[in-house]
């Protein structure tokens, strides 16, 4: 039987990877995973706690392991963590195992979409706008490098973005 394709969502915090990923999986009748949630499930600790105890390096190692395991599957939508693409092995793995969709957004939208929720340790120190801008400078070229498709999420609902992805990508 032909291999069922995977869709991997990459992009910065607040791009909507987790929210859009769920809609997309529903639309396409694929299984949904979220690397951040899977790390928390396996560890039994939340991301902020992992950052506190093990530092960002410890978190990144867990993230790499989880992404390696999940990308062994077929027929999934995976929302990846915003910083996972900093690891070249992760980028190569995503490219090899599925279709990579970069969800793009502006810094203003990122600030608005992340401000109510305190789960993102990298946004707990300093001005969120400045931090997000600095991360974008380093990471945006990496999202672009790994992406098969780039989708702008700014002026449409998460469900509309999911529908746009369905109509744009060539799954088979
Ligand atoms: N297209 C959209 N329009 C309006 N709000 C959105 C859109 N996409 C996501 N949101 C909202 O923005 C917030 C952040 O979205 P989400 O958690 O899906 O981002 P993320 O890319 O998974 O971030 P992270 O990398 O931190 O996990 C959520 O409250 C979500 O409902
Ligand atoms: O952009 C990042 O580095 C992060 C994004 C989130 O998805 C989480 O993986 C964590 O908060 C770190
Ligand atoms: Mg998410």
TrEMBL record:
Pfam families according to UniProt: SKI
PROSITE patterns, alphabetized: SHIKIMATE_KINASE
UniProt-annotated binding residues for Mg(2+): 18
Annotated GO biological process: amino acid biosynthetic process; aromatic amino acid family biosynthetic process; chorismate biosynthetic process
Transferase keyword on record: yes
Enzyme class: transferase
Pathway(s) per entry: Metabolic intermediate biosynthesis; chorismate biosynthesis; chorismate from D-erythrose 4-phosphate and phosphoenolpyruvate: step 5/7
InterPro entries reported for this sequence: P-loop_NTPase, Shikimate/glucono_kinase, Shikimate_kinase/TSH1, Shikimate_kinase_CS
Any single GO CC term annotated in Swiss-Prot or TrEMBL for this entry: cytosol
SUPFAM superfamilies: P-loop containing nucleoside triphosphate hydrolases
Binding-site positions, ATP: 14-19, 120, 156
Residues that, per the record, bind substrate: 36, 60, 82, 139
Subcellular location, record wording: Cytoplasm
EC number from the UniProt entry: 2.7.1.71
Keywords, ordered alphabetically: Amino-acid biosynthesis, Aromatic amino acid biosynthesis, ATP-binding, Cytoplasm, Kinase, Magnesium, Metal-binding, Nucleotide-binding, Transferase
Superkingdom in the source lineage: Bacteria
Cofactor note text: Binds 1 Mg(2+) ion per subunit.
Family to which the UniProt record says this protein belongs: Belongs to the shikimate kinase family.
Record-linked NCBIfam families: PRK05057.1
Function of the molecule: Catalyzes the specific phosphorylation of the 3-hydroxyl group of shikimic acid using ATP as a cosubstrate.
Protein name: Shikimate kinase
Organism: Salinimonas iocasae
């Amino acid at each position: 039987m032909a291999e069922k394709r995977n869709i991997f969502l990459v992009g910065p915090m607040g791009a909507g990877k987790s929210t859009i990923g769920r809609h997309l999986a529903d639309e396409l009748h694929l299984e949904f995973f979220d690397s951040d949630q899977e790390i928390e499930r396996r560890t039994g600790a939340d991301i902020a706690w992992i950052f506190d105890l093990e530092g960002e390096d410890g978190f990144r190692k867990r993230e790499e392991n989880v992404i390696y395991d999940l990308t062994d599957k077929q027929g999934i939508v995976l929302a990846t963590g915003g910083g996972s693409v900093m690891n070249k092995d992760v980028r190569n793995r995503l490219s090899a195992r599925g279709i990579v969709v970069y969800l793009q957004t502006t810094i203003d939208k990122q600030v608005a979409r992340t401000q109510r929720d305190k789960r993102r340790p990298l946004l707990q120190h300093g001005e969120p706008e400045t931090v997000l801008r600095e991360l974008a400078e380093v990471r945006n070229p990496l999202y672009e490098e790994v992406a098969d498709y780039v989708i702008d999420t700014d002026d449409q609902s998460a469900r509309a973005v999911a529908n746009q992805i369905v109509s744009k990508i060539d799954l088979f």
